[in-house]
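Researcher: Batch entry, complex prediction.
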Amino acid sequence: MDNRDRDFLKVITMPEQEASGCQEKSTCGSSAGPGEMDPEVWEKVKNHPCYSEEAHHFYARMHVAVAPACNIQCNYCNRKYDCSNESRPGVVSERMTPELAAKKVLAVASEIHQMTVVGIAGAGDSLANPEKTFKTFELISKAAPDIKLCLSTNGLALPDMVDRIADYNVDHVTVTINMVDPEVGERIYPWIYYNKKRWKGRDASKILSERQLQGLEMLTARKILVKVNSVMIPGVNDEHLKAVNREVKRRGAFLHNIMPLISEAEHGTFYGLTGQRGPTAEELKALQDSCEGEMNMMRHCRQCRADAVGLLGEDRSSEFTNEKIESIEIADVVYDLSARESYRQKVEDVRDKERKIKEMLLSGLASSAETESAPAILVAVATAGEGLVNQHFGHAREFQIYEVDAKDAKFVGHRRVDLYCEGGYGEEDSLARITLALSDCVAVLVAKIGGCPKKTLEEAKILGIDKYAYQPIKPSLLSWFAEYVEGVREGKIDPKAATGQTKIRSGAFTAPASGTIPLAVLK
Amino acid sequence: MAYTIVLENCTGCSACEPECPNAAIASTSDGLYEIDPDLCTECIGFFGEAQCTAVCPIDDTCIPDPNLVEDRETLMARKVKLHGE
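Model: Structure tokens for the complex:
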């Protein structure tokens, strides 16, 4: 154990003794956190799992599918398709009324204290169903005042709705903007319904784009945070999304989320049926990297269902069916505001501790010129939440991917793999699938890993590392980076070449209805 | 001719219901939508195209009912009867 390890462990076990002297929690810290942000903005995003990468380890969200109608057609969407096993935008199992939605929010909030955000994202477009959407917000804000409200829209109706959005204190709006050029748009949107008319071709995209950008400007003028979602469609808008990024940044968007196209033929979408492919993990990351100037890029999106419930990486929607919610007596639901507040305080403490550990590691402990100049590597992490390396390799349904160098461990994405190990034995095929999904990573940090999968991974030049079990992710990665550089220098570790073919499997794992898998709860 | 909704195609998304100028569209007991032919004017006198068809996300779902062919005068007369001149 070197000095760095010793100091690292000391802080984890005795954090109080390492107080950094920073008075104001919410503005002290380092990357991906409050340090780089206007305090007012940080206050808005710090508990929102979709707006803060850090928050998504601790906080959960739910979508209520009260908005079935849509006012545009996108080539990546098929409104006839619905499957409870598939997790992606626009998919829901059941629709619900605003009244049932409010009841569901109360039931979930009393069961899952981590749930801080309720969003309306479909199954159609939230603002194409304004009465249902705003009625839902009204009911929730009365019943559960500490819950943040947000919505997601294609933007066509947005300019007409900004006043009402502001009236309900909706702080976060997501607008899906896939183009700012109607020539690109006509290959994405076959039609829109606007002003009592169906518009097609370039005219449709021209109207849509003008309305989206106008709506974006109106929201940011009112200090409502706007996240822009863009679907990356190779050969259609991939290069063009750099122009989209510039335009939305100029209009004050807070965060840009470039997501991979999902186009499986069995979904029956236009793109699925015509063989339009989605991007590889490398293509997606290259585009996200090139857009990451002054603007925050979101990389932890799971492209979740319009009725998702829980942490982003684990959908519990199947536990909360309409039938179950209807059978609950509302008088039996205990909305324990103080328990929810006490959870949030615990999270604040954990986050604060993590920041201090990381600052200390970066303050020069054991760093060398060699480590400083070493190129960044990608490392996968198995985590069940709380920002810890706390999952068994065989139990991981997804891995988080970090880009690590001497200065930072930056979250750059996730890879969904679902269960490799069920009932205690491994399956050959799924191990091969994981190896492929992590083919651009040099290592995977886990709480535990069996000898056999470890050997198979090593054959693919992916090291299985379990020495950081139950320790915070980012400090562990920074600590391991120095070891990696040393290993390469001594010839013990053979650096690997990029393949460029890492396949993306989208969506979040959906827990089975009988699921006994609890959300990670801070004890 | 009045419009009709092909129930095998209807997803029950409700997009058509608020767009109908005659309030001719209502939900069925199983969550889909149907058009009351006695109230449908094919949007004549209101809009240049049938609104249910213009907004419906599924092709060939809100269609002119082949069994209920009506001429423009009949539809206009219905519009006047429902809404006045």
